[in-house]
Amino acid sequence: MNPNNYLVLAGILFTIGAFGVLVRRNAIIVFMSVEMMLNAANLAFVAASHITGTLDGQVAAFFVMTVAAAEVVVGLAIIVVIFRTRRSASIDEASLLKY
Amino acid sequence: MTGEVVIFWITAIFSVIGAVGMVISRKAVHSALWVAFAMINLAVLYFSLGGAFLGTTQIVVYTGAVMMLFLFVLMIVGVDSSDSLIETIKGQRLVGTILAFAFGALLTSAITSTGFSAANGVAAANNANGGNIQGLAQLIFGRYLLAFEVTSALLITAALGAMVLAHHERWTPRKTQAQLQRERTLSGHPTPMPNPGVLALHNSVDTPALLPDGSPSQESLPRIFKSVEQSDDSTNNEVNS
Amino acid sequence: MISALIGLPLFGAALLLLGGRRTNAWGHYFAVAMSTSAFVIGVTQFLALLSKPAEERNINAHLFDWISVGSFTVPFGLHLDQLSVVFVLLITGVGSLIHVYSIGYMAHDENRRRFFGYLNLFVAAMLLLVLADNYLLLYVGWEGVGLASYLLISFYQHKPSAAAAGKKAFVVNRVGDVGLSVAIMLMFVTFKDVTFGGVSEHAQHASGHSLTLIGLALLLAACGKSAQFPLQSWLLDAMEGPTPVSALIHAATMVTAGVYLITRAHAIFDLSETARTAVVVIGAITLLLGAFIGTAKDDIKKGLAGSTMSQIGYMILAAGLGPVGYVFAIFHLLTHGMFKAGLFLGAGSVMHGMEDDVNMRNYGALRGAMKITYITFGLGFLAIIGVPPFAGFWSKDEIIHAAFSQNLVVGLATLLGAGVTAFYMTRMMAMTFFGESRWKKGVHPHESPLVMTAPMIILAVGSVFGGLALKFLGNIELWLEPVVGVAAPKDPASNAVLIPVTLTVVLVGAGYGWLKYAKTPVPSVAPENVSLLTRAARADAYGDALNEAVFMRPGQYLTRALVWFDTRAVDGLVGGLSATVGGLSARLRRTQNGLVRSYALTMLGGAVLIALVLLLVRL
To answer: Is this complex's ipTM strictly greater than 0.95?
Structure first.
């Protein structure tokens, strides 16, 4: 079993997550795509630890998970605040930085 | 055909299906469910790779807490909020597809061109310290102690940040129960309002529902039937006041 | 003491010009007093020089070290010797007479005080010019008289023609001034010294080439100031100024500064054959040109201006002949100063009586109405055409003699000039004082007041006896010999032959003029159907047209082209640059569409690019 497979799977999941960020308009779905990308990274880490035979990869994945959780908390709070004032969860409407 | 291979292929296919499903779902809740599905598959994969603790954490923290958090926010935002599938930015979809494809191809070619030696497996590492959790603990509180401390600071900051962001500033003092009682008595109808639908005169889809004070609620109408008169529907929002 | 010569008129000018209206009542008297006291000092200095032996006749006054930079030192020093003292006497003498005359002439002008201030300024500057002991200080005086000339020509400021004439005089003089600056610079380079003494000493050791260059540059300067060809166009226009100005500046003194310069720099001209030849040629051309122009002018002042141009041509020619002619150039300068000033003052008196009309076609038969003017003008006329024993005969004939001894063609030119001079001066006399009266209605010619006629009488006396005095009473050749050197003409044409020939030519010219203008009636309106030559003479021999075509129009086109280039090319370049930047930035700005997904797309694109590059590098 070629350990590359895990990494290829991680790459595919990452790509799908990136695609999701680009094409979806709903802020929450975009966020979920970002989570998918993080998960892909986690998978890569675990696969790496499996390849090398050390647990450092898993520790890294552990930290990534923590950070992802923190990020989700703050990000969703922001989305809630924006939704409160703007009544819309579409990220296209948040275009005040337009020239 | 070892178990590892079987598990890999099954979970791989399912997680890809889950990811794709997330991206192409119209309703947000469906997307969330697809993501949860993908994540559980990944957790199984972690288990098969010898990361028992990580797999558990994936299910409990990621799928259980984070995705539920997503669902809560979805409820706040509107469960039935759905995107139209028409793309508003010109060329976004096309270029996005091309780029994503290119990126994927690059990654895959880069990965496949590297030759890793056969996987060792973490079984030895796990056993060295008497179990996966112990091994992880050895590393977290040993070599990566600083990262651990910093991450904990990060978590605290995130929690505080969320609190600050979501805090609702009161511009007027909150009405006490005595005040509320007083207003109700003086309002003209001290009795509780009838339940929704009690005073309904019509039964059609385009008849708006009545709010407890008797005024029609345009929000109860499906979007297509929004009447022209009521343009501003931010006057009465029970969630915030 | 000699610094007071300059200081007194300068003080007068400063007081009158800075004092303003407060000095109106007594300003003119003060100016006359300053000028006259300068004359008195001049006379005392002259007597002081007389008492010294011939070789030591100079007084020097070193006032202070003006410029002292490295090896270049220029003192602010005054030097009074035989040459400068005659100039001082001429300037202050004739100048004071004209100051007195102006009291009467400018009596009705409300700006009289300003006029006298400028006159004093002129006298101070001219005295500085002749008293300087080095070329740079001379240049200061040179510029000063140019300034005074400009101020005085355009004195009637409200007249656009006067303002234009002043500007023209200044600009043309400037061209000559460039010559003087170049000469001074060349002197510094060649001799390391710009004092007269230093230059004379070192001239023998310099190369012929540099001496010729310096000589030609000095000639250019002289042409500008003395209105010689090719810088002669300003003199006729300068008659726009009041008549006393024409008399003082453009007859007696300023225009002779060129002659002074050439005589002073005799050390250089003596050693350069080419420069001398150039001077003689210029002198000859101008004397014929001036005479030619003078024959067709109906304006009495312009006719006299053409005459001045011609007479200075004689002086320049004589100065160019070398040691043979320097003395006679100065001699003619002195006599000319007297009779020309007298003629101009007479013309001013005629104008005063004819309601400021300058057109001779409106004169006629004035000898009965203005007797004193007629007599003084007539004496000046006889002097200028060279009738013995009047002043002009002695000086002009010596010049003709010297010219013939050098070159036949030059001699013939001077002879012809004498004839034409006689012709146009007779024409002027005839049209003004003889013939039928062609006065306009309401014009009653009357004699001028004493304050105006007295200077005219004094100058007429000078025209009569000046030549005799300078030749026999005090020999001017002997006087100037230590300064400029005198040489006897080699292979002289005998005076016994020349003098009758000259007189015959003069009589022929005068007779022809008399026949044409005194015997036949003069039309009151200038005839249109005239010969080509007359037309050319009326147009100042097309001098202005030439200047315009050769210098002004190309200059104008050049300026226009440069302006076009500046606005289109230079501004276009800068503007185009800014427009390009603006355009580019406007395009680039549109990428900031505020949409997060576009930014995310760009980020992914960048990541793909980096990954590609990394992979390719590794491959």
So the answer is: no
